[in-house]
Predict the 3D structure of the following.
Amino acid sequence: MASSWPVAQIRDLTVDYHGERGWTRAVDGVSLEIGNGEALGLAGESGSGKTTVAYTLLGERRGASRVGGQVLFRGRDILAMPAGELLSVRGRSIGFVPQNPMASLTPSMKVGGQVAEMLRFHAVETPQGVGARVVELLDSVGIPNPVAAARRYPHELSGGQQQRVAIAMALACRPDLVILDEPTTGLDVTTQKRILELLAALKRETAVSMLYVSHDLASLAQICERVAVMQKGRLVEVAHTSSLFADPRQEYTRDLIAAVPRLDRPPAGRIEAPPPRHAPNLLEIDRLAVSYARRPLFGLGKPPADADSVKGVSFAVQRGKTFALIGESGSGKSSIARAVAGLTRPRAGAIRFNGEALPALARQRSTLLRRKIQIIFQNPDSSLNPRKTVRSILARPLSMFSRLDAVAREARVIELLQAVRLDPAYADRRPHQLSGGERQRVAIARALAAEPELIICDEILSALDVSVQASVLQLLQTLQRERGLTYLFISHDLAVVRWFAQDIGVLRQGAFCELGDTETTLSAPKSPYTIQLLEAVPRIDAGPPPETQPA
């Protein structure tokens, strides 16, 4: 730790939210300090209050709430600052990186313009130097061809690239404190490693302080000097990182550490019953090509083959098994998933389900086919209707795909919530009243409601804390064993894939560099790229990232 003098202090913080059942305490008497140049990790399960604590450092008050205690930045109480002064502090002195980059990026504005807007608003760069600084920032967070990227809209970048833009914006004004809310959650392991190295280099060279909020304990172990653990709004343990992971004092902390997926050992509670051998193929992909290249005027002509995000891949998924797709952001994983789900029209190739060709788009498919193939998206913020209650969200597929009456539907909604470890009382809440992990669990329950044969899981664990990850994986395995479910599992977490999937395909730039059974592929990889992915997997016992210069 660079200095014991705090850049930020939280003193006896309490936060209450008002809902249909009155006031609920989300944060209960939390006190923390962040020293100059220190990175403090804040860990805990979804709903533990860690994100609420982070937002109070920005002076943010969500909805009907009441806040007690003090939140000091450089000795000034942020909660008592006038609105104008608080606005100048945000971005200039305190940077913020949200979990969902699309929540902070304007979809109708080019990426470079958004970074430039931050620089101009806080007047930290001359008008002549703004352009060069934008390119420098995008390059520093590892965005390929930053000059071209600056001219693109957010939707033209991969999810990992969008998050890197959000990090660049947070660093633009060289702030004293950066608050990072799950900043590497949606990133592949190699990009995650580069971002962690970048953050470590930034902290070392500029003495910037950080509050790093994450359920990814391995990432916290590599970047933070101290880690604070929260449970149900309370602070249960604060210790130096090495001490906390080597000898945690609280049982809750020990449980969190035990639940972290590792490449060298199976997770606790893993179901050992293997899927049947020599099962028939449920899904077959034959020379699939997907392109997002812009077509000529009026849609005439075809994009060139070298513009494909997926370049003629072929593979099969056996009934009752799990096939995993891994690779960096932009490798084509989600493009394949969207083509199978009928959300994207392939440029070429064929997709067969149960031996029969699938119509290209979901709207062309029968009700039965739509029921049999379900997809769970990475970002529940975009897939859940914010105006509907959880009950309505889960009842929708039941109404579409079953003949249950109202009483039976209600009972089924409760069963689905319990299956994903949510209290039945959540049925009356709306998505904005849930944490990120809770929203993802609702999305998983919605897919299960249709009783499908194939579930496409597109990074479904990235928003979940480690203990919930373990329970969801165990749930998916139980369903697979009992109902013969088949999964197309997309993930950047190789430790999860190692113990969950029977077969694996490693994608790079839209094509397979390795394809086979998971055990062989990850135990004895042949491709240098697969080896690179395995070496980039973060580990709790790995220590801080190596001394590197920013990219």
